[in-house]
């Protein structure tokens, strides 16, 4: 993005520069998952779950993004792949809800909430959200979705 381009400044991604400690690569697959939601221009909502080791994404369309619905979709994913040791989430109401926290505590899953206004701390999910949305919109444009 050109710093002097007003249009780029208005419509480009916010690239706030902060010093962050990078995540260590997990020792095994499905050890640490990064999660977020994506909303496409047609109004559909998607749960994005990215395994930090192989960068494997799981994408699930959501009828709603309530805590209960989110937990149900996560249970489906965990049935397929097993329970992770850690999940990294933003401070969205679905992820800080009591029911998700209790579910994770009972299953010994550590929930790591990223600091407010530091979305790059959940970069695995954030990057894939952008990749997914670009691919989805391209597919819609050429009539493949």
UniProtKB/TrEMBL annotation:
Give the protein name, as stated in the record.
Answer: Integrase catalytic domain-containing protein
Mind telling me which Gene3D superfamilies this protein's record contains? Ribonuclease H-like superfamily/Ribonuclease H
The record's InterPro entries line, in alphabetical order, gives: Integrase_cat-core, Retrovirus_Pol_polyprotein, RNaseH-like_sf, RNaseH_sf
State a single Gene Ontology molecular function: nucleic acid binding
Q: Which domain of life is it from?
A: Eukaryota
- A single GO BP: DNA integration
Q: Where are the transmembrane segments?
A: none
Q: Where is the Integrase catalytic domain?
A: 22-145
Pfam families in UniProt:
rve (PF00665)
Which source organism? Teladorsagia circumcincta
